[in-house]
Amino acid sequence: MCDAQMWRFGGTAIEAMLEQSFGQPSVHVDTRNGASLAEMASRALDETQGAVVAIGFSMGAIVALEMGALAPDRVRGLVLCAYNAGSDLAARSPHRLRQQETVLSGGLDRIIIDELKPVYLAPANRTNEALQSEILSMARRLGAEVFVTQSEALRSRPDRIAALAGLACPVLFIAGEHDTICPIEWHERWAELTPRSTLKLVPGAGHMIPMEAPHAFSRAIELWIADCRERYPTWPNES
Questions:
Q1: The listed CATH number (1.20.1250.20, 3.90.199.10, 3.40.50.1820, 3.90.1150.10) that belongs to domain 4-88+159-231
Q2: Residue 144's pLDDT band (boundaries 50, 70, 90)?
Q3: Is 189 exposed, middle or buried (0-12, 13-18, 19+ CB in 10 A)?
Q4: Which terminus of the chain is less hemmed in, N or C, by CB atoms within 10 Å?
Q5: What does R_g of the chain's alpha carbons equal in angstroms?
Q6: Is the pLDDT of residue 59 over 90?
Q7: What is the mean pLDDT of the chain?
Q8: Cβ within 8 Å of residue 168, ≥6 positions away
Q9: Which positions fall inside the AB hydrolase-1 domain (predicted)?
Q10: ∠ CA 192-227-206 to the nearest 5 degrees?
């Protein structure tokens, strides 16, 4: 339930860094539709051209991994932030169905305010009214139908842990110190399984890392890009 505004909570830091690093503006792909995350990934590939470095947060990170699996010849790097490579947790699946029913009955605000925001943010950020307001505004802009579509895509997603070992491109995992949705322990495991991986912990952040710590998030990607270019001189254009 995030749109392009998520990347702009810290001003232009993230987008400006990416444009300076790659010499062209970043592309915001549309994840509002699609019966599955693989379908969303296929659409994302259709909306872009040539070599791609896919940067995804939470559900977007799962879509980014699918992009890498669908088009390994095009995807030359992945940034997977607040990421879960596994299928939906057994305890979370029925909870999603209940949330979907509530949202379709007009309860989108209640789900976002009462159930999602409290666990999305680090304790120190739970009184940040500007941050909370923007999270709610994004959800309202996307609406109930998108909530159900994305929730169901997440609920029915396959386990992709085994796919990590087959990734040939460099991968940056970014985890929030206080993320209880996708904790640091998960990211440590994903990094161990991924051949060309880098893991960055963002202190003080919860799950909403690009909004809670946009400058730290941007700097982590900037340093990773520089490191990739030093370690792999032809990156991101290597075959």
A1: 3.40.50.1820
A2: very high
A3: middle
A4: C
A5: 17
A6: yes
A7: 94
A8: 72, 195, 196
A9: 38-219
A10: 55
So what's the pLDDT on residue 73? 94
Domain edges within the chain: 4-88+159-231, 92-154
Element (H, E) at 141: helix 129-155
pLDDT of residue 10: 81
CA angle centred on 166, ends 165 and 170, rounded to 5°: 85
Which amino acid, 60? G
* Residue 231 tokens, joined: 């370690």
Q: How confident is the model at residue 6 (pLDDT cuts 50, 70, 90)?
A: very high
Going by C-beta distance under 8 Å and a sequence separation of 6 or more, which residues neighbour residue 25?
15, 18, 19
Token pair belonging to 184: 């640091």
